[in-house]
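Can anyone check this?
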Amino acid sequence: MDRNTLSTLTNDVELMENESSFPENHPTPARQAINELKVFLNYLDSTGRIAVSNADQSERQELLGLLTTLTKITKSISQATYRMYHNASETHQDEEHFEEMSQQALNETPETAPLDALEHTENCDNFENNSEDTEEDSDVDDGSQEESLEEPLLGDNSFKFNFRVDYDPPVRKRLYPKGFRSMQIPVNNCLLRISETACVCLLCMKHLIGKREVFVQHVKGPKHAQAALDGVRLMNLNNFHLAFLNLDANFQAHQVYFQPAQHNTDSVHCRMCRTDVKIRNVAEHILDARHKNMFLRNFRNKPTSFFLMDLQLLCYGIENGSGTNEENSAPDSSERIHDVRPSYDLTNPDSWNFLLPFRYLSQSDHFRKNETSTSVKCNLCDKMILSDRKNLLRHIESKAHMTALGKIRQKNYQYFCQICKVAMKKSGWIRHFDAMKDHTKELKEEKLGEYQCMTCNLIIFGEDSAVKNHPKSMNLFKKERKHELSDFTRTTFASAEQLNKVADSMAIEADMVANCTSVTEAFCKRLETIMNAKLGGTSRCKAYPFGSRVCGLGNESSDLDVFLDVGGMYDGERKQDYESQGRIVKLVSKTLRQHRDDFERIYAIPDARTPIVCFNCRRSRLKCDLSFRHGLSVENTEFVGLCLELQPITQKLILVLKKWFQTNQLKKKIPTYAITIMAIFYMQVNGYLFSVNKLRQLNPAPPILIDGWEAITYTMTTEEMINHITPYPDTLEKLLKDFFVYYLNFNYKEDVSIILLHCVKH
């Protein structure tokens, strides 16, 4: 049989209940495979018998071994438990691997490779019983799942990628979580988590997006199993890990943008820059201006689109000014692994790190050395500086240079002198050294140096041995945190009269925006016209507005959220995979750029959890976020709008809460939609709004199934439903107070609120 036949057997054979009902000439994959097997059996029955009878003793023994292997494979397939409408190759992965059996039979003689000794090395079912990916990893890995690579490469299918991969703990925990590393798959460490809902199969070079079941289905699939037998792919995977293992943690974190190169075994592919990079040049590529600029642009627009972006920033000496933290709780500073390194590289006088401390090394692009002079030029400030550390440091920290540097925020470091046991700010760091010269003469200067702790953002001067104990001195920097109320909170909550005045003003603006349907409809109609003209054919695009502007919780500056259905996508059954969403985003953004008279500032984000296209509409001056998943957000907006109509005071409650969260810097910690759901749930548990189940009882029409969720088909009018609602009897002031008291006493650790049933579950 040729490779096409084997591919048909491996990838395309579907076990269908009514396949026999197809016409005889219907070219189903199974029937094609049957015809090929009949030809093979006819050959075996004639030519094969003659070959065996005419063979000498050694050839006959080898032929008999191969025929015995074929018999066992056939028996294994016939005894497999088939599940209707499941892929046949996936079913066979629960049986002995006939690929491995045949490979071993070809490489070894029957005497050295008895059939009973053949091992089945894939068992992905264990993955579904593992703990969640977010569980804490043990610092000590017993190595039971990952073994050292001892076998030589004997052929394309004999390479086994099972060596131990020891990334730094924060990288290993986030990118290769426990649930992935404990999977009993033929190849370990081939799944790389890049975000909360996406990962990359480094073996198949395929992007996977969705829930855990999507990842499980992939590793249990036939294409992944086939890739595990490809020696070239395995070698590429091996080289991918070798490219990052010896780098620092902040460089390791950048592997979310890389994958193995398809055609160059000595390279990896940077998806962000769309170029292959030699393994030895990965660190240099990450520091390259092009990669850096693309990363910073991505970070500014979506700082949580990939894992470990805060750690990745350290490569450029920049911190995330938003203060976000990917971990639920940070460990105590004394318990963390402290990455302490010298600030200067004294071994290489020609490098910039000899003159610039590591924390400012990313700024070396702004300086130019003059080989014939003892000065360097700052291109940003157009100024010559003496090429010694003190003068360069003073220039970099000067106000003029910081202004020229622009909006990119630099890390705020703490400074500590181990010799004097003194903590200080950046402004006094250089002056301190000038003042302590006499004090340090008695010490051996070669033992002293400046060090940087990447973990604590701490700059330390002292001896190497003393520097390693710096966590014990961290209490010098601890300050009591001050909690101050925002101006909005102080003025709005000063009196009940002022509270009602502010709430009424926000409600009037929100209603005005929501009732301005003509602008929204004209915008959506124009969008549909452009996309229908682009797609042509029978495809009919439909734009559905949703979000705060539509339901009555927005304002003049709110973005307009629109779901664009480009063909049968409302129920979430079509074009939901990563590749399809990426193609749609690129097509739509390209189309919008062809209509510059209508749209501007067009920016595509295909790698987000929900891929979107952001742009501004010139005519309406609206800022729009265009998504392409399904219509669940549209249905949710309709539900929220209904709640506001049934109990009007809910609108003022949510608007005040949103403004309160925003002005007290809590909006980044709790999403706006979560605030809305919290308010609706509070009204539900107190009997002032329906639960979702109650709404279904009042509207018994068959629900709409969207992405596995049942959306209500409303048959009862809003006026009829209001008759079943108890109006809220008290004031907004009382409602807000009771809301805060309720969630103050809520057991966030053990309880969960269920808006479907308006109840709390333990």
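Reply from J.R.: I decoded it. The chain is about 40% helix and 15% strand.
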